[in-house]
Amino acid sequence: EPEVTQxxxxxxxxxxxxxxxxxxxxxxxxxxxWYRQILGQKVEFLVSFYNNExxxxxxxxxxxxxxxxxxxxxxxxxxxSTKLEDSAMYFCASSFRGRVExxxxxxxxxxxx
Amino acid sequence: GEDVEQSLFLSVREGDSSVINxxxxxxxxxxxxxxxxxxxxxxxxxxxxxxxxxxxxxQRLTVLLNKKDKHLSLRIADTQTGDSAxxxxxxxxxxxxxxxxxxxTVTVRA
Lengths: 113, 110
Prior knowledge:
The structure holds 2 protein chains of 2 kinds. Chain A has strands spanning 5-7, 10-13, 19-24, 31-37, 43-50, 53-57, 65-68, 75-79, 88-95, 103-104, 108-112. By secondary structure, chain A is mostly beta strands. By secondary structure, chain B is mainly beta. Chain B is globular, with a radius of gyration of 13 Å.
């Protein structure tokens, strides 16, 4: 069964460094998403991406964040200058179209020291 | 606005039924979802219901939707130890995102 994959599973970085989190969505899906979950808190929407552009973003997704689909398979989230409060589990998701079920990857745990 | 509320904890004896409740606010949501998260793992889509349905059954899972009260519930029949997890209710207020509740931690005791 096709699934969303994410790499790395765990990333440790120093405050102020740039990180890139990688995702491979399900191959025939057209909508891509990033969510994050700070430890013990609810899953929060960050951004959605469709037709090679951002379709919606939350207040959390400020200028430090960017997303890219550099080729036909990868979908990346870049945090330009990490802060301590960026420590969280980051989930990538994809869906065939809008307003249907989204399939989530296993997540990347980001730890900012 | 979007606000999804769930009770935080549920303890249930193995073999009993579990019922997890959720309320949501956005009446434009087309689908409502239940996701399961096991310790240290990602989000697994358990089931979903279309907003014009009031019930959906899938093996041990029964979803009930009261659209008038914006109330969603998930019933797990014959709860097993493997059902211990956090269960998230979610709505999709538009084409582009899901709004999640805080999650209900279900603990199954022997």
